[in-house]
Amino acid sequence: MSGFDIAALVVAALVIFVIFAGVKTVPQGYNYTVERFQKYTRTLHPGLTIIVPFIDQIGRKINVMEQVLDIPSQEVISRDNATVLVDGVAFYQVVDAAQASYEVTNLERAIMALTMTNIRSVLGSMDLDHILSQRDEINTRLLHVVDAAAGPWGVKVTRIEIKDITPPADLVASMGRQMKAEREKRASILVAEGAKQAQILEAEGRKEAAFRDAEARERSAQAEATATSLVSDAVSKGDVAALNYFIAQKYVDALKAMAASPNQKTFVLPYEATALLGSLGGIAEIARDTFSGGAAATPAARTAGRSRPGVPSAGSAVPPGPESV
Fold first, then answer.
1. Does the pLDDT of residue 307 top 60, yes or no?
2. pTM, whole model, 2 decimals?
3. pLDDT 10s digits, 15-31
4. What average pLDDT does this structure show over 245-253?
């Protein structure tokens, strides 16, 4: 092989080397920084790109996809001096490769330290009950603070979540006893309220029943007074049949009451009770007069009504007598 051939091969190899040195391929999801004499010049985006060989070189290869960062557990003292163990997770994405490369030395470590510090600050300003119940508020406050602090680094913090909040074992036992006592208190209050409502309803029922009984007695008394007044008016006008009917009705009610007694086997009627028969006879005579259109009763019937000894006629009042049994 001649010297010319060797020189041609060397030139061809050099050209190929220069081409490979100047052509760069950036994969999807990454950004490359270009440095010229150790100074940042531009950023290469995904795809095929050409740089100046031997003068420009690739500085940093930055992942611009969203990444997750585990926050290790740490002890946090709350505002009411309760110690809890807290860990979390943070999601971030590089939006400016140059700032992420040259504004901070170790991006992941910086974000982790910033998040842990703000977790202590945010949770330290809350009471334990607030920490355990307001996790969404804690996440929102942490995201706002950490994202604002990481902005100059070309990073967008998209989400911060508190995974576990673990109080000490003795504090958990105390919280369990407190919850049990609170539930027992609520149960006692509910039972007392139920008993109170029951007593109120029972009293209202007694009140309503007493009112209805009083109203019934009042109406019964009014009816009795009306009946007595009508009988008095009839007697004053000379109509003793109404009086006989009134007295006969009282006799009948008294006999019904004696007969309805469960332990009453026999009872003796007084002599004056025979006057009831006369009253009944007078009532029958009034009924016959009424249904016959006001015609006078036959003399035989009237004679039969007066001929019985000891029985008063329909037109005479019944003499009062004892009603004892």
1. no
2. 0.54
3. 788 788 888 889 999 99
4. 70
In order of 42, 64, 95, 133, the CA distances from 45 in angstroms are 10, 10, 12, 45
Residues 6+ apart with CB under 8 A from 246: 227, 228, 231
Would you say residue 62 has pLDDT above 70?
Answer: yes
* 3-state SS string for the chain: CCHHHHHHHHHHHHHHHHHHHHEEEECCCEEEEEEECCCEEEEECCEEEECCCCCEEEEEEEECCCEEEEEEEEEEECCCCCEEEEEEEEEEEECCHHHHHHCCCCHHHHHHHHHHHHHHHHHHCCCHHHHHHCHHHHHHHHHHHHHHHHHHHCEEEEEEEEEEEECCHHHHHHHHHHHHHHHHHHHHHHHHHHHHHHHHHHHHHHHHHHHHHHHHHHHHHHHHHHHHHHHHHHHHCCCCHHHHHHHHHHHHHHHHHHHCCCCCCCCCCCHHHHHHHHHHHHHHHHHHHHHCCCCCCCHHHHHHHHHCCCCCCCCCCCCCCCCCC
Residues 6+ apart with CB under 8 A from 287: none
